[in-house]
Specification:
alpha+beta; 50s Ribosomal Protein L5, Chain: A
Length: 179
Amino acid sequence: MARLLEQYRNEIAPRLADKLGCPNRLALPRLVKIVVNSGVGQALENKKILEDAVSTLATLTGQRPMVTRARKSVAGFKLREGSEIGCKATLRGKRMYEFLDRVISIVLPRIRDFRGLSLNAFDGHGNYTLGIGEQIVFPEIDIDDVEFTIGMNITLVIAGDSDEASLELLREFGMPFRT
């Protein structure tokens, strides 16, 4: 079983119930899914960049990502509707908790000049999004094999109704927020 999932069930959920004053365990905020999204704008000129992004995301998440396409044409970006412009992977269950554990304990401390995560990245519904500028901060990626640097957005979808409850959950998981 994933370390964070076990920790959530045994330690974090009872502490959250006390802090939030919620006796019903099912009403507590919990992690539903993690969406890892990588938009690759240069994929229009060079298909190899998109292939690298897909293989990188597959290595990081442990599952094959879905290639995303443009919804509408934008002449200023030389973008046509249906063009392949990125990839995304949705993690649930055990893989989700293992990925979050790696992000918290390994990836975030490896980011250069890291001073903590912003408290302004909540969306008003309790979900949190953070951006990673380069894929080389992940230990699975060999720096010598990297041809193109690819950034990504990691969205933590949290079941709950407020940003405050979600913030409390993420603090219990050990997310390093700015003070």
